[in-house]
Structure formats: C-alpha cells, structure tokens
TrEMBL record:
Keywords: Fatty acid metabolism, Lipid metabolism, Lyase. It comes from Falsiroseomonas oleicola. Pfam families: ECH_1. The keyword Lipid metabolism applies. This is Enoyl-CoA hydratase. The keyword NAD does not apply. GO terms for molecular function: enoyl-CoA hydratase activity. Its EC number is 4.2.1.17. CDD domains: crotonase-like.
Length: 267
C-alpha cells in the first residue's frame, strides 16, 4: 500500500515498446479523485508525445481496479458556497477529458482488470481500446443505487456494448461477472488471475510488434469512421488506406510478405 508520498500513477517502460500506467491508490479503491484524473491526463499527454511507446497498458494496484469517482471528495465539496456545483462540474469535465484523451491517444490502450470496476471505473474499462480481465473481475454502473444515474459512464458503455445490455447495467446497477462482460463485449479476454499480467503483456507485445505507423493510423480511422454515415466512412477510410499505402512501413511490409521474410519497421 503506498504511503502519502507515493505517486498516484506509476509508470513502467517495458521492453518492446510497451508502457504500463498503474493506478496507485489501493487504499481508496483507486478512485478517480480530481488529483488522480489530473495525473492520468498528464501521464497520457507524456505518452502521446513519446514515439518509443507503441502500446499502453492501464493497470491498477490492489484488489480493486477502480471504484469510480471519489465519493468522499464529492461529499466534502457539498460544504462549498455553491453546495459543490462548481467542483462537480469541473470533476465531470476533467473525467470526460481523460476518457477522450484515451480514445485520441495515438497508441492503443489495453485495460488490465484484476478486480472490481464500478461506475467511472467501468467507464474507464469501456473507454480503453481493449481489455483483458481476471476471472475475479466484476463490473457495474451502480449509480442508481445511490440516486445518481451513471450518465457519463453510459457514454463509453453504450459505445462498447449493445444498447440493451448497457441499459440493463445502467438501470439495475447489478454486478456483471467477467464471463458476462466478455459475452457482451465489454472485455476481450478473461484469464485466470495468476495469468492476467502475462496475458495482457503478451497481447500488448503482439500489437507492439506490428508497424506503429499503421496501428496509429488505424486506431484514429476506426474511431473517426464510427461517427460517419456509411458512404462518408468509406470515403474517409479509403483516403487513410491510400496514405497508409504510401508509407515506408507499408512498402516494407508488403515486400517482406512477398519475399517471405520478417519486416523491419521504421520507428
């Protein structure tokens, strides 16, 4: 358990172009306090500007992945002159900025979920590009249980899973198992707890071994085309494919495939 001087967010740069960011507030269930959201935003900004990083793994210390917003912090601000409105507004906007920064990050982001992810913590998992979960992981959006519908988590959840399972989670607040989360598309893979980090890192390294240029082009195009009508989506992605074909990595990759050799990507 970290002491008062431990960083809220721990960064570990691994071999092969993979970096890990670990939420480091296990004593408060890795809740997304205003300070934690600021640390995440700063960490993402640094990673976005680092060409050595091909894939980001987002993990958490302790038995809980993330319990969502810090309800003690929220309650304390009810004593403000405006009963907390300014702080609540700032916190929700900062959280939205962090979630959008994950989507906008050039590198793919994989959530490594070892335990419970609730409310904005579930939102964080849904926002990541991929998610690997322990068999012990659980997910819920329980705002309705405390008179607070999880409206901002709904933005990410409704884009990760189909409408009806998303609405069931939002309307009931019921806990969803890792297996059910995989079935509805909230996570990609479920593995035994002892194999979680190994499985996540294997997936991260597999992606990092591909052309970083192509992966980053592809991630951006994927999210851009989702909001477009069909014809516009094809037009946009056709232009991206043309740009991709003009890149050195595509020339190298096609040449390596035809020559039956391993490609050497530019970094």
């Amino acid at each position: 358990m970290p002491d008062g001087t431990a960083p809220l967010l721990q960064r570990q740069d691994c071999e092969g172009g993979v970096t890990r960011l670990t939420l480091n507030r296990p004593d408060s269930r890795n809740s997304l306090s205003f300070a934690m959201l600021g640390a995440l935003r700063h960490g993402l900004e640094e990673i976005a500007q680092d060409p050595r990083i091909c894939v980001l793994v987002l993990a958490a210390a302790g038995p809980v992945f993330c319990a969502g917003h810090d309800l003690r912090e929220i309650t304390a601000h009810r004593n403000d002159e405006d009963a907390g409105r300014a702080f609540f507004d700032a916190a929700m906007h900062r959280c939205a900025e962090v979630m959008q920064a994950i989507t906008a990050l050039p590198q793919p982001v994989i959530a490594e979920v070892q335990g419970v992810a609730t409310a904005a913590g579930c939102q964080l998992v849904a926002t990541c590009d991929l998610a690997v979960a322990s068999e012990a992981a659980r997910f819920c959006t329980p705002g309705v249980d405390i008179g607070l519908f999880c409206s901002t988590p709904a933005v990410a959840l409704s884009r990760a899973v189909a409408a009806k399972p998303a609405m069931e989670m939002l309307l009931t607040g019921a806990m969803v198992s890792a297996a059910e989360a995989q079935r509805i598309g909230l996570v990609n893979r479920v593995v035994p707890a002892a194999e979680l980090s190994e499985a996540t890192m294997a997936l991260a390294r597999h992606i990092a071994d591909r052309s970083a240029h192509a992966v980053q082009l592809g991630k951006a195009a994927f999210y851009r085309q989702r909001g477009l009508p069909l014809a516009e989506a094809y037009a946009h992605c056709a232009a991206v494919m043309t740009d991709n074909l003009m890149a050195t990595d595509a020339e190298e990759g096609i040449g390596a495939f035809l020559g039956k050799r391993k490609p050497v990507w530019g970094r």
